[in-house]
Write a structure and sequence with these properties.
The chain has twelve helices and two strands, in the order αββααααααααααα. The chain has 345 residues and is mostly helical.
Length: 345
Amino acid sequence: MQMKSEQIMPPPRRGLGEIAMAPLAFVMGLLDMPLRWLQKTAGISGMAAFFLMPNMLIFGVFVLLPFVINFAYSMTGGTALFLSDRNFVGTNQYARLFDCSNYLDPNSCAEDTFWTAVGNTGWFVAIQVVLMLLVSLITALILNRDLAARSFWRAVFFFPVLLSPVVVGLIWKWILQRQGLLNFGLYGLGFDPYVWLSDRNWAFAATVGVSIWAHMGFYTLILLAGLQSIPKDLYEAAEMDGTRPARAFWRITMPLLMPNLLVVFVLVLIRAVQIFDEVYVLTGGGPGTSTLYLTQYIYETGFATALRNPGLAAAASILMGAVLVVLTLIQLGVGRSGDKTGGKS
C-alpha cells in the first residue's frame, strides 16, 4: 500500500492580543526567575516578608518616622523650626499644658487656649458622635427598605463624602453667612436676616451639623452593608411567631448589627476628635474661641501664630493621640467582651 504523505499544518496565527502581551510576558518571565530563587532560598515565610516589605517601608517612612520626630519635638523648646536648632527641655511642654489650678476653668491654666480647645472638642465629640450614629442608623434602615429609586437615594446620601472638606466648608459658609442662601430664604418669608456664624451657640451647632452632613454617607454605607447581611429568614420566622417590628429590631437587627456599629463608633470617634478642615473654613474657630477645637489649636500653635511653638503643639498632638488610642482600646475591649457574652448565651 502506498502511504499518503502527511499534510503539514501551518502554525496557528497569533492574535493581536497575544502580540501586545508578549513584552509583558517577557518581563514577567524575567521577574519569575529571581522570585523562584527567593522562594527556594527563604521559603514561604520569606516570600511573605518580601511582599510585605514595601508596605512596611511606606508605613515606617510616613507614619512611624513622623511619630518619632513629633515626640522628639515635644521634648524641645523655642520657636526654631528645625530640630537641630531647638533646645532640649524634657517634659516641660507637657507640664505647661497641665499647669492648671482648676481643669474645669480654662482661665486658671497657663495654656488657657489649650483647655478651651479640649472643652470644645469634648462637647463636640459627645454631641456629634451620638447624632452621627443615630442619623446614620436611621438612614441605613430607611435605605434598606424597598423604596422607589433606591439606588438613586443611596447615591444622594453618599455624594457629600466625595466632596473635599474645604469644598464642604465653603458651601455651608455661603449658605450660612449674613448674605447667604439661608438668610435670603428667610428674608423672602418676611423674617429678618441673622448672622448665624457670629453667634456662639449657632456656630457650634453649625459645625456639628455640617460634619454630620459631610460624613454620614460613609457610615450609612457600612451600616447598610451590615443590614443586608442579616438573613431575611430570621425576620420571616419572627413575623410568623407574631413578633412586633420593634421587638424584632431590638432582638434581631441590633445584636447582628453590633459589629458594624462598633466599627462605625470607633471611626466616628476618631474623626470627631480630629475635626479640622471644614470647621477651619466655616468659622475659623470663632466667634472668639467657641469653635476652636484641638486640631486647630495644634495647627495654630505650631505654624500659624507669630510666636509659634512647635514643641508645645507636638506635646498636645501626642496627648491627643494617646487619648484616641486609649478610647479605641476600651471600645474594642467592650466589643470583645460583648461577643464572648453573646457566644456563651
